[in-house]
User: Fold this.
Amino acid sequence: MEREVYFRHLQNESNHWWFRARGEIISAMIKKNISSNDKKLKILDFGSGSGTNIEMLSNLGDVYVYEKNKEIFNILKLKYGKFRNVKFIENLGKENFFDLILAADVIEHIKNDFETIENFYNILNTKGQLILTVPAYDFLMSKKDEVLQHYRRYNKKSLQKLITKYFDEIKVSYFNFFLFIPIALVIIFFKLFNMDFIDKVEKKPNELTNVILHRIFSFEKYFLNFLNFPFGVSIIAILKKKQND
Assistant:
């Protein structure tokens, strides 16, 4: 991502409705679907970005923070270095190590996403699990994606095709379902007029709007453990490492 995007995220992620709700949904999905057998999980936060998920993950086990942008990596060390169970790594390390990998809105930034999925498989232990979130639908590709340096958006079928060699599905669902229509209409409007709108949507809106959007989006955590949404702005995948025959 561009430098200014990282810093905009750092300024807004703690209160912005989208970051907060996504974190709550991921947390609920981990607690429901990720088995720990009462042991402390070794969790890789891959592509930590502004660090929006680090504190949440630190309540679940030891968190290994991996972020390729060196400037942001150093900021995260200053911000979260006081957490005893948060470690900062510059290399992904040995095979069969992690219990859980979270890649939240990351693999769309990577040109060879299949190679990354293969790497996840190698560094997860035998019963390791992977959580991915990705943006959905090519028709929503916009200037925002260009600024964020996205190579692609996914649909459920393309994501399943990407992971099927190395992972079995626990759950794959669209999410940000309830807000899909208004968000899609806004994106299409800005696309039609070739307008740059990332600065508007990534800054926290006024307090009332922020609260309403957060409550609508976060409400999905009560549904996702029991059903799969048929469409949404994003996709969440909860996967387990395939076992050798």
Notes: Strands lie at 41-46, 61-66, 86-88, 98-104, 124-135, 167-175, 234-241. DSSP finds eleven helices and seven strands in the chain. Residues 21 and 219 are 8 Å apart (CA to CA).
